[in-house]
TrEMBL record:
Official protein name in the record: BGGP Beta-1-3-galactosyl-O-glycosyl-glycoprotein
Superkingdom per UniProt: Eukaryota
Localisation per UniProt entry: Membrane
Key words of the record: Glycoprotein, Glycosyltransferase, Membrane, Transferase
One of the record's GO cellular component terms: membrane
Membrane topology: Single-pass type II membrane protein
Coiled-coil intervals: none
Length: 426
């Protein structure tokens, strides 16, 4: 009797689980059909562009770049300076000025507050700049130690401000971010620059870079430095701690020029970071000597979606010693022909009010004293000696000149089969 009772109990148990098992099987079958019929709300692993489904807020979705030729681009310029640079900063702004563009001027905390107030007041009183309302002077200045990470932090601060937009600068509509200093100067007009850039893919990043860091591995990557500018109110030089570190293995180090023209999609990636690479690299470079010469280079070349967008050039003419020293030569009239022959749209370094700047104004930019560089937007007259660029007309009207021919020649060379892909992030 015991064996027969045991069989009956097992049969009862088996029948008790039949209904749940059947229901579970049916639900599993329905789920399998649904998964294979309807797309998942996540990006495919083969996609190189982050999907908007990855973001909690729609504002964090990356902005797709406009196709080349879709409309005239707008450039966002950060122009930085320090104590005694207010006058030079204003001159660079006027040489670079176009009502379409966006501008942020930053005099670091070493400059007195009166310099920032006077600069802002002078720009507010300028008829053209006041009318376009597209220039901001940073009033809460950052302390900058040029060999430390505070310069990177300041660049990211300006980039974030451009992305956020502001009622006083025409909004956040722009395509490339270019960082310059008070010792830079343009070698083309903004009509030249906008005209040539209107033909380019909007996702290109002009950034001089290499993974052959050479001596920098021992002298910059392995030492650990502390930048007092991160936590002090007064500027002081960086200092080293005794311990050294190994070269990273989670990402590959790149180095290059601190001057660059970055696409809006890449700037958004650096600020919003839909993966953790920009923040991880930023934390590493917070203890790296001369971090402006490595942070953006390392991020762009380690990010799958951006490493093939780099153009290996910083768009500058710079005169270095051979081998290069810490700082380049100051440029003079004797360098003018070489500057122009380089086809670069910018040059550095210049002493404030060096006579060569007057030559550039007169011979290349056709710029009058205290007035913006002329362009197709200038709608005034020359009656009674007035400057036609005192009145803003159609900002989409361009009059490119010889500078556009030179810049187009440079772009054709940089984007050639011999120079574009072979020089990217190796």
């Amino acid at each position: 009797m015991k064996p027969l009772l045991s069989q009956s109990l097992h049969a009862a148990v088996d029948r008790r689980w039949l209904l749940p098992l059947a229901v579970g099987s049916a639900l599993s079958l329905l789920l399998l059909v649904a998964l294979t019929t309807f797309p998942l709300p996540f990006p495919s692993s083969s996609s190189s562009t982050p999907s908007s489904a990855l973001f909690v807020e729609h504002k964090l979705s990356p902005t797709p770049p406009s196709p080349a030729g879709a409309s005239l681009p707008r450039i966002a310029f950060l122009i930085s300076g320090s104590a005694k640079d207010a006058s030079a900063l204003r001159r660079v702004l006027l040489a670079l000025y176009h009502p379409r563009n966006r501008y942020i001027l930053h005099l670091d905390a070493e400059a007195p507050d009166s310099d920032r107030r006077d600069l802002a007041a002078a720009l507010a009183a300028h008829p053209v700049i006041a009318a376009a309302d597209n220039v901001r002077v940073v009033d809460r200045a950052n302390l900058i130690t040029y060999r430390g990470p505070t310069m990177v932090a300041n660049t990211l601060h300006a980039a974030a401000a451009f992305l956020w937009g502001h009622a006083g600068d025409g909004g956040s509509d722009w395509d490339w971010f270019i960082n310059l200093s008070a010792s830079d100067y343009p070698l083309v007009t903004q009509d030249d620059l906008i005209h040539v850039f209107s033909k380019l893919p909007r996702d290109l990043n002009f950034i001089d870079h290499t993974s052959d860091i050479g001596w920098k591995e021992f002298q910059r990557a392995k030492p650990v430095i502390i930048d007092p500018g991160l936590y002090m109110k007064k500027k002081a030089d960086v200092f080293w701690i005794p311990q050294r570190r190994s070269v990273p293995t989670a990402f590959k180090l790149f180095t290059g020029s601190a001057w660059m023209a970055l696409s809006r999609p890449f700037v958004e990636y650096c600020i919003w970071g839909w993966d953790n690479l920009p923040r991880t690299v930023l934390m590493y470079y917070s203890n790296f000597i001369s971090s402006p010469e490595g942070y953006f280079h390392t991020v762009v070349c380690n990010a799958e979606e951006f490493k093939n967008t780099t153009v290996n050039h910083d768009l500058h003419y710079i005169s270095w010693d051979n081998p290069p020293k810490q700082h380049p030569h100051y440029l003079t009239v004797e360098d003018l022909d070489r500057m122009v022959a380089s086809d670069a749209p910018f040059a550095r370094k210049f002493h404030a009010d060096d006579p060569v700047l007057d030559r550039i104004d007169g011979e290349i930019l056709s710029r009058s004293v205290d007035m913006p560089t002329p362009g197709g937007w200038c709608a005034g007259t020359r009656e009674n000696g007035s400057d036609p660029c005192s009145v803003i007309g159609d900002t989409s009207l361009l009059r490119p000149g010889r500078g556009a021919v030179r810049l187009q020649r440079l772009m054709t060379s940089l984007l050639s089969e011999e120079k574009f892909h072979p020089r990217q992030c190796k």
